[in-house]
Amino acid sequence: MTTPFTALILGAGMGKRMASDLPKVLHPALGKPLVLHVLGQLQPLHPARIVVVVGHKEDLVRKALEDRNVHFVTQSPQLGTGHAVQVAWPELEQGPPTILILAGDMPLVRTVTLKKLIDRHLGDHDAVTFLSGELDDPAGYGRVVRDNRGDFQRIVEEKDAVAKERKIAEVNSGIYCFERGPLGDALGALQPDNAQKEYYLTDTLTVLLGRGQRVGALLVPDSREMFGVNTPEQLALVEETLRAWGES
Questions:
Q1: pTM of the predicted model, to two decimals?
Q2: Peptide bond into 77 cis (omega under 30)
Q3: Which residues are known catalytic residues?
Q4: What is the pLDDT of residues 21-51, one digit of tens each?
Q5: Which of 17, 24, 80, 146 could form a disulfide with 199 if both were Cys (CB 3.0 to 4.6 A apart)?
Q6: Which of 224, 222, 226, 190 minimizes the C-alpha distance to 205?
Q7: CA distances (Å), 207 to each of 164, 195, 219, in order?
Q8: Phi and psi at residue 105, in whole multiples of 5°?
Q9: Is residue 170 classed as helix, strand or coil in its secondary structure?
């Protein structure tokens, strides 16, 4: 990776469905915390700056990453993914203007995919490029809504989606590559006008599109890379996939 970039890892959540009070990103997959799997795939790209958003039991996350060269910001209260990026903004301003945002509970994303996303983003001169995928069962994911020509329109979270939108197979991974200037402008326009009363990072894409900015998407070849961990069952599926990929 020759172009410097900043990596922002979102890791403030509790994970209410994990039947544990442990921060979600610290739940182990094959004995290693989820967030360390993410960092392991990220670091071969040599990000110039890594920022981690912490919240629930943040001291445990800070302790787990104390030997890593990362910068921490605290999100409290936790008002959504858009809010997490707003909180991290002072740290993001200190790094390169290309910003890769990813979740700390997605241990299956591969280095090669992250590199392809950044390369596509820079090559197409987008304001933002996001990673999407097609799932047989898209339940729980934000759906990617396109027009009749196949052009991106918006991402709608499942709790806000109507029945027709819930049938869409293309979903948002929650991994994005932004340029800092357009991202900062769009963050200021976010409103919690949704079912969860949160500030959605996905809404920045709609804001940017409405302002004539370029929004790109890269379809991930293996949808398993998008698996996040919200339940013990999903954690077991992640471990099964890691074993199938030869990790131990």
A1: 0.95
A2: yes
A3: 17
A4: 899 999 999 999 999 999 999 999 999 999 9
A5: 80
A6: 190
A7: 23, 19, 22
A8: -115, 25
A9: strand
Is residue 6 within 8 A of residue 99, CB to CB? The reply is yes
The owner of tokens 């357009």 is: 182
Could you give the domains of the chain? 6-133+172-243 (3.90.550.10)
Average pLDDT over residues 67-95: 97
Question: What are 133's two structure tokens?
Answer: 């995928």
Predicted confidence at residue 15, as pLDDT, reads: 80
Q: What is the pLDDT of residue 31?
A: 95
**Closest by alpha carbon to 72, among 12, 13, 4, 114?**
12
Q: What is the largest CA-CA distance in the chain?
A: 50
